[in-house]
Design a protein that fits this description.
Structural class: alpha/beta
CATH architecture: Alpha-Beta Barrel
Distance between the termini: 38 Å
Largest sheet: 10 strands, mixed
Order of helices and strands: HEEEHEHEEEHEHEHHEHEHHEH
Number of strands: 12
Low-confidence stretches: none
Mean pLDDT: 96
Bound molecules: ligand PBG
């Protein structure tokens, strides 16, 4: 005869050993992608005020960083370029001697086995800061596609292992696939930012990458945060056009979308734990309102529990360290 309450779920929570044994979700450093900002110029890395602990790397400062990343067992890096010059069409993004191609080849020479992903988008290179070419005050979808295709080929030539278009133009995955295939890069995968929302959480990144739009906003091409069905259409369109992995971005405010993507499609799902999610944790910790390690690991665990196979996160290095210390 058992006594009330019959169900005692607390039994398995009693000791750290049992909690670890029955934990359903485990983070691995190998599932993290660490974002790197690379700036054209010499000298030391520049701290990014809106993202404490993160920097804009020069090619010189990148070398030591890469050694750290490899030592920590992080799965991959994703590169964002900050060019010396910007113009209306973002042409510096197509330069084979531009900052991203140079950074890619430097990293691949240093550590050939480290997976290098490049962000393919015009916003870091355009003077107006939009993700596409602007014609008569509007972001021109079809005029942007060939430029994205060319950028992807330039990155592949430099040695990028994966290209990741983040522009949200219609048809860009297909255009990039065609451009890569035509240039004999049939083996280079596309990790598409498929469900990318017009989010207020990108603020710190735009300061870091100097890529805030000079006029208007991105709501004419990035998704409305209110929409979920549309995210599934974006994902299936990208897969039809040849995407190899799909992404949901941001992550924390979109965990339902991550779960729907994982349940709805049989492809790898990547979630981008974006700059604002990182800086929010930093700000809380700075004010003594929370413990950085616990906040960050809780967020990353939630993203994985929601269904993400891979997580892009500015906390990758810290989290890798915390996980290896086995201290949760
Ligand atoms: C470029 C791009 C952005 C981010 C990644 N790629 C900025 C944007 O769309 O404004 C944001 C990443 C972050 O906030 O961490 N299109």
């Amino acid at each position: 005869m058992s006594t009330f309450p019959e169900l005692r779920l607390r039994r398995l929570r009693r000791t750290p050993g049992m909690r670890k044994l029955f934990r359903e979700t485990e983070l691995n450093a190998g599932d993290f992608i660490y974002p790197l900002f690379v700036v054209d110029g010499d000298g030391a890395a520049q701290p990014i005020p809106s993202m404490p602990g993160e920097v804009r790397h020069t090619l010189a400062s990148l070398v030591e960083e890469i050694d750290d990343i490899v030592r920590l067992g992080i799965g991959a890096v994703i590169l964002f370029g900050i060019p010396a010059a910007k113009d209306e069409q973002g042409l510096s993004g197509l330069d084979p001697d531009g900052i991203v191609p140079r950074a890619v080849s430097l990293i691949k020479r240093q550590v050939p086995q480290l997976t290098v992903i490049t962000d393919v988008c015009l916003c870091e290179y355009t003077s107006h800061g939009h993700c596409g070419v602007v014609t008569n005050g509007e972001v021109d979808n079809d005029a942007t596609l060939p430029l994205l295709g060319r950028m992807a080929v330039v990155h592949a030539k430099a040695g990028a292992d994966i290209v990741a278009p983040s522009d949200m133009m219609d048809g860009r995955v297909g255009a990039i696939r065609q451009a890569l295939d035509a240039a004999n890069y049939k083996h280079i995968p596309i990790m598409a930012y498929s469900a990318k929302y017009a989010s207020a959480f990108y603020g710190p990144f735009r300061e870091a990458a100097c890529s805030a739009p000079g006029f208007g906003d991105r709501r004419g091409y990035q998704m409305d945060p209110a929409n979920a069905l549309e995210a599934m259409r974006e994902i299936s369109a990208d897969l039809d056009e040849g995407a190899d992995a799909v992404m949901v971005k941001p992550a924390l405010a979109y965990l339902d979308i991550v779960r729907q993507a994982k349940d709805g499609f049989d492809c790898p799902v990547v979630a981008y734990n974006v700059s604002g999610e990182y800086s929010m944790v930093k700000a809380m910790a700075e004010r003594g309102w929370g413990e950085e390690k616990r906040l960050a690991l809780e967020i990353l665990t939630s993203i994985k529990r929601a269904g993400a196979d891979v997580i892009i996160t500015y906390h990758a290095k810290d989290a890798a360290r915390w996980i290896s210390e086995g201290d949760r």
